Structure formats: C-alpha cells, structure tokens
Amino acid sequence: MILDNGVIRTMDPSLATCGALALAGPLVAGGVGTHEWALPSPERVDLRGRCVLPAFTDAHVHFPTWALAQRDVRLDGAASLAEALDRVARHPRHGTWIRGTGWRDAEWAEKPDREALDAVSGDTPAALWAKDYHSLWLNSAALARAGGDLDADGGVVERDAAGAPTGILREESAWRFRERYVTVSEDEWVEATRAGIRVAVSRGVGAIHDKDGWLGAAAIFGRIHEREGLAIRVWQSLPAERVTELAALGLRSRIGDDFLRLGYLKTFMDGTLGSQTALMLDGSGVRISGRDELEETIRAGAAAGWPVSVHAIGDLANREALDAFEATMDVWRPLGLRHRIEHAQCLDPTDIERFARIGVACSVQFTHAPSDRDLAERLWHDRLEGAYAFRSLWEAGALLANGSDAPVEELDPLAGIRHGVLRTLDDRPGWRPQEALTVEQAIRASTVNPAWLAGDERRRGRLLPGFLADLVVLSRDPFGCPPEELATVEVVATMVGGRWVHNPPPWD
Amino acid sequence: MILDNGVIRTMDPSLATCGALALAGPLVAGGVGTHEWALPSPERVDLRGRCVLPAFTDAHVHFPTWALAQRDVRLDGAASLAEALDRVARHPRHGTWIRGTGWRDAEWAEKPDREALDAVSGDTPAALWAKDYHSLWLNSAALARAGGDLDADGGVVERDAAGAPTGILREESAWRFRERYVTVSEDEWVEATRAGIRVAVSRGVGAIHDKDGWLGAAAIFGRIHEREGLAIRVWQSLPAERVTELAALGLRSRIGDDFLRLGYLKTFMDGTLGSQTALMLDGSGVRISGRDELEETIRAGAAAGWPVSVHAIGDLANREALDAFEATMDVWRPLGLRHRIEHAQCLDPTDIERFARIGVACSVQFTHAPSDRDLAERLWHDRLEGAYAFRSLWEAGALLANGSDAPVEELDPLAGIRHGVLRTLDDRPGWRPQEALTVEQAIRASTVNPAWLAGDERRRGRLLPGFLADLVVLSRDPFGCPPEELATVEVVATMVGGRWVHNPPPWD
C-alpha cells in the first residue's frame, strides 16, 4: 500500500518529511519524496495533502478506569454541591452501583458528604471519585457495604464531630474501599474497554502506557487480544508490591507481544495537588513511600528485571524519588532499565537537571499545566518556577513523554500537544509561556519518546523502513499551522500495524 | 528461499508430500510438487533427496533442570552403590554443590545413605536425584544445610533406627529441600540453558513445553530472549498453586510472543513408578492431590484463563484426574481450554476411552515404555493391559503428545519416535507390540499435536503456507524406511522461524 500525495512526517532526522509512504503488511517499507514506485500495482491511497504522523502514544492512562468512567456520572466542572447532586439525580442507572467521577470541591460553599448524596441516590450504593482520584465520596448505602472497614495505612477517613464517617475517604482508604467494595464484573470491564479502544483510535492513539495494573488490566486487554485482537498496543504496569511474586514466577518485564506487553512496576511517593496531599519541601502533604522504600523497590525490581515508574507530584516527593534512583544507579544502569517519574509536577529548580544526569525519564501530562493553573497559582504561588516546567526539563536534556492521565483529563493526544504548546484551555494567554514547548517537541513527547520508554525505539514511534506501520492521518499539518490554529487539526484516520483501525479511506 | 529436491512431509492431508518448499522470511510460503517458481532469484537449497518435517516439539521437558544436569554426575545405569559412589568420586567439581542425577536403587544390594556418600564427597554438600526425580540422596554436609528442616506435607524423610535421617528424602520433602537449600545462581541457570538449547536444536527440537515453571524458568528463557533471542519456542508452565496471584496480576494463559509464551498451570496427583509412589487402585502409593483438590484447581484456573496440566501415573491417580476434568466440563469447555494429563502411565482399561470423550489430552513419553518395561512387569504385572497403552489411546481418539521427560530420559525426539514405534531399547523384541504406534502417529504426536495443545494449530506443527517456518532436515525419510532402520535417521539441520538454528547448508 502507498500513502501518496501528502506530508509524511517520519519524526526521524534522516528524512524528516516525504510526500509518500510505502507499507508492506504490518510494516513501513519506505518513504520517498516522489511517487515513482517500482512495486507492481500497490493499493494507492490519495492523502490529498493531508499530514501523516506516527500514531500517538498516551504515556500515562488508567485505560480501563477511563473506559468505564465514560459510562459514569460526569461531575467535572460542577460549580457547587447542588449541581453535582443534580447530575447524580438525572443520570440513567445501570449496574449495581452509581459511579461517578470528576468532582472538585475546593471552590464549593457546601462540602460533599453522605447525607447530601443519600437524598439523590436512595438505597443504591454510590461512589463518586474526585477529579484527581485521590478522594472518594460515598453515600450511606456504599459505606454500609464496608461495615466499618474503612481505615488504611496512608489513608484518611473523614469523620464528623460524633466520629461517624462523613462519606469522604482519601488516599489509601479510598483506593482500598474501591478495591474491596466497588465491584465491577470482568465482563463489564472488558465491554467498557473494548468501547474505549474505539474512542482512543478515533483520537489517533496507537499505543498506551497503562496504569491500571493494580486492577488486573492485563487480563482485560488479554481477553480482547485473545478474542478479536487489540487495535492498540499496551505497555502494561503492574503494582510494585507484587515484585516478589513476579520474581518467584520468573516473570520479567517485556514478556508479551507487539500488542500486549508487561512493562514496568508502578509505585507512589505522594498524593496530589488537588487533594493537597502532594509531599512538599515545606513539610505539607502525605508521604506514601520514602526514599529508602523506593530504593528497595528499585533494587528488587532490577533483580527481577523490571523498571520502575513512580508517581511524584510534590517537590519533596520528586527529590526523594530522584535521590533513590541516583543511589541505585550502579544496580540498574548496567541493565538498561528505563525508569520514569510520573507527573514531576512541582520540582525544586535545582532538581530539574537531575533527570537527564541520572537518566530517569519524565512522564508528564501537558494538559495538567493549563488545567491546574488556578489551583497551582494559589497553593504553589511561592514555587511556580519549577512547576510544570516542561521546557526547562526538555532543555536540560530530560526525556519527556506525554500522557493524558485519563480519566483525570480527557484522553486526547492532539489536545495534549496543543496544551504543551499553548498552555491555555481558555481565552487567557498561555500560563508561564517560558515553559511552552514547540510543536515538534510536543509531538516527539507523544510519539518517539514513549516508544523509547517501552524499549521499542527501533520498532515504533517513527515512520522508518522496518518499523511498525502505526500512523495517524491528520486533516492539517500541525508543524505548518500557526500555533493558535492547532485546534483546527483533526484526526482523519488511524492505522496500527498496517491495518486501518479508525476510518479507512477513501475520505472526502 | 526454496528448499528443493527433497521429500517434504507437511503433515497436512491436503498436500502430504511435496518436492520443494518455498519460505518467505519467518514463514512458509508454499509447497509444490515441482520446482517451477515464479519468484525472482530466490536462494535455493538443494536437499539432495533428504526429508523435511516440521520441527519437533518436546511436549514434556524440565528444560533448565535437564540443561543443568548435563553438567552433573550421571548415575544412570549404575548397577550398584559402589559404582554410583565411584562415579561421584571421579567427577570434576564445579560450583558450590556436587549435583547428580539418575540413580535407581531398586536392584542394588546395598542401599544409598549419607555415610556412604560422605566417604567420597567430604565436606562438599552433595545432592543426588533418583532417575524419577522423586527421591533425593544427600550427604551429611547437605543435610547440615537444612539444620533439621526436612519434613513436609506429602513428603517422606527416611530415618535409621536411632531416628536420624539416612540421607534419603522423597516427594515433597525432596522438592522442598532442593528449593530451599540446593541453590543455583540465575546466571548459572541461564548459561546452562543457553548451552542446552544448542543441544536441543541439534536434535531437531524447535519447540518445548517446559515443566520448570516452579523454579522460574520463564525468567531464564526471558533473559536469553532479551539478550540474543531464543532459538526454540517455549510454552511455559507455572505452578498451579500460584493461580490466585496470577489472577490478581491479571495474567492469563497465552501472554507472550511466538518464542516465549506463558501456557498452563501444572499440578500433581501422585508420585512415580520408580519410587513406588504412584497412586494405584490397589490402595498403594502417595496421593499428592485428590479429585476435589484438582477440581478446585481447574475451576480457579478457568476463572483466571488457564488450562491445567496434571501429573498422573497410577491408575487411581488417572481416574481421579479424569473424574475432576469430567466434573468441571461445563466450566472449561466453553472457554476452549486445552487441559492435559501428564504421563497417563497406568490406566484402568475402562478409563482409556474417557480422554477423548472428556477432551483431555494425553501428554505421554514414548521412551518410558521400553525404559520402564522391566520395572512395570514386576510392579504392575497384574495391570499391564492399560499401561503405556499408546495405541489403544490413539485408537480411542485421544490426542497424544510426546515428550522426553528429560532429564528423566534423554532429550531426543527421534529416539522418542523410534521407541513409540519399536517399544524396545535393546535387542529384545518390542514390549507389548499391540501398543506400538505407526511412524506417522509417532511423528504426529511430536509435531502436529503439541502445537494444538499450545493453541498454535494454525501457526505451527505443519508446513503450510503462512505457518512458521520451523522445520528439521533429516538424513533419511522415516516414513519410507523399515522400522528397524529408524535408528539410521539423523538430524541434518534445524530451522526455526526461517532461520537455520543448527547446521546451515550447504551440506555434504
């Protein structure tokens, strides 16, 4: 097959742009500047000047959780408790639980609690996640399921003056409640994920780095892979606390195939900005793991053949994570393990250069910058210099990969790229524009760099001969359009492994 | 590439034999009866009348254990205690432990014990496996490592009149001792396995069903796969008692790629003939799992997406295993799980037809029949009708796969095929020749059927267009030679995935 008459951006400096691309089965055969071909009568697709990029990787997504949340009550942007409750009341019921996501009560006059929720949900158990997934709002029917079993190390159970739970759980208490009591059948997960993949490919996604290992995402993807084949490639996380079992089973990172591969161990240093649980140098926040604990995880992971991905948001959390990676360099560097810090949202400016020096990648979410700007201006006003410092990190040589953090933000790589370049979601000018990336940097962080993180730098992320034919056709070349017009760039079609997985040609 | 001028046996009825085979990269492109080809100047290999078969699968092999044992004291055929001790004394030392395998004391006048072994091993700990790997002979230095920690459920610790361990452990006690005290570094495993793979491909092996999941074989194969690529395909077992962890991690059977794939759960019903621990209808033997326990394993495996392989040697063990698979058919049949009984050595004749009816495969070892004949004649003289009843099983419709059980027997598929057809290892006529297989049946059990068990019946095991180009070149066509001349058939070369992994052409 030949994609012809377009602008093919290979993302490789050896042939940055060409007018046509030849494909052979699941692979790229070659790209040339003209359309003279020696092959006998290939299928020819006329791009009519459209742009082709390597398919996007979403480097940080809780994919099944996001896919399931597509069916849930959406509370994003609810300006008050009353508005949130109204949305719950009006949402169609399906399944055993009322599930919802996206509330943020920082600006609400009345705070959420179980009684308010009881009034609109009745006897049906309801579990509503905060936008950052670090707080959970339950009604009385939901609380009853736990029979008082709410406390957890590293967790918070909010209680009223009488000592009764208000219905708000945070951190470990919230996650433990979900794991034990908010049950979803595996069939429901599979069905939602299958539908989610259709949405993802319509947005140009060809690969994801999934974060839902803790809920058994590998089995969800595995069932789809067995049944009809996956349309996207999955680099799967598993919980770091399982490393002993993985070692005993003899399971190392990279077992899998080009569509479903076990990738990395995931652990946490701290909480989040939104829940005010990020671990800060000023002494605030929640420490989920300390430096020593992370060191142990890195060593155990290395012994068993696994790289580590660690969530770190606050400046102290990031410093301790960097310390742990630095202290263990002798162990993991010879093994070529590709570790990563997730979010790296608030950094002490002196820590920025350490990512490149130590060799730990920075798995960030461009959309978080404009999305968090108001909250960050308020809570981190005295430390914005190292917050969402994507351009500084890039220029210091850090490897940046971009993810959506869906369902925290929408799963939409083009939106992520736009937010990395423009740093605004609305009519305001870009926030701290000195940290804006170029279009090329933002796209590289969404294609080339995540492929490297998954050890696939010679297979994916660029459109070179012998690479997998994973590509997205865009309505317009994002390199060639003024940044303020990036929102007009749309996904026309997506191909993964030589197969059109979204909107096959011909196109109008 | 075209393999030309030979006898290609595709093992598929649609084109049983052809004179040439065309390959394209890792795949078979087609087979034809002439050598007229339309392709432009392919590489041409002249077979000079040699025979090509699908590469063999060894459907039952403890591969790393066998590979490591290649470096150990070999006690096979030692006719007396003195001969065994002499071999230990003369063996070159390397590593921390003296390790040995292959003794069988059934015919020895003096029985093995620690004192006899101390005399030739001194302070170096020594651990010598019986031929069936169900008994372990230790010296005093080895026993000292355990500090008295020898007992285990389902295990036997032999003791003298004074109550002191004699140095012989059986069943669970033996395996537990190995796991806890006979340490081998992962590097040593990898090195031995790498060397073992070179030996295996020289014997025409292109794939194995490995049984060493319990020792983390997946990591050993994984390290070789990461470093230089595996030359053989591995269908990996994992211990059935890990099924809860696998479910929590979301790991299902079939995760992996064409070279290393997690396959099936392995568990045990009973012991062995050689150790007299096979569970028999006459009430003798050791029950490791009962019917109910196996039922639970099958149900848990099915829920997590795993087929089960169960070791069963005695007639009662086999009956209970069949009962358990039959009782759970409603659960696993709709999932298409391919369960298997390993060995199926002694069957009550009424149970023979059940394998096909229930749909459980029979993973047997053709070589065990002539190898065990004397012992079986003695211990099972009243129940030989259903012992090693390969032809009866075949004719009753059971799916038979052949394995070596290496290191119990030598890893050599051509020897296995010969023993399935001739049922003798020496000058005696075949043992119970009514149970002999045809050459075609024996080869099918070593190629087509194991590929089906691994879910690869449309990818491997036959030489059809689009199948993986895994093949063995033989010096002579085993179908066309008198059975008594099968020993003259030799492996000339082996190809896996289109790559010569043993003795590339040209050949003399």
TrEMBL record, chains A, B:
<keyword id="KW-0378">Hydrolase</keyword>
<dbReference type="GO" id="GO:0016810">
    <property type="term" value="F:hydrolase activity, acting on carbon-nitrogen (but not peptide) bonds"/>
</dbReference>
<protein>
    <submittedName>
        <fullName>Putative metal-dependent hydrolase with the TIM-barrel fold</fullName>
    </submittedName>
</protein>
<dbReference type="InterPro" id="IPR033932">
    <property type="entry name" value="YtcJ-like"/>
</dbReference>
<dbReference type="Pfam" id="PF07969">
    <property type="entry name" value="Amidohydro_3"/>
</dbReference>
<dbReference type="InterPro" id="IPR013108">
    <property type="entry name" value="Amidohydro_3"/>
</dbReference>
<dbReference type="InterPro" id="IPR011059">
    <property type="entry name" value="Metal-dep_hydrolase_composite"/>
</dbReference>
<dbReference type="InterPro" id="IPR032466">
    <property type="entry name" value="Metal_Hydrolase"/>
</dbReference>
<feature type="domain" description="Amidohydrolase 3">
    <location>
        <begin position="45"/>
        <end position="502"/>
    </location>
</feature>
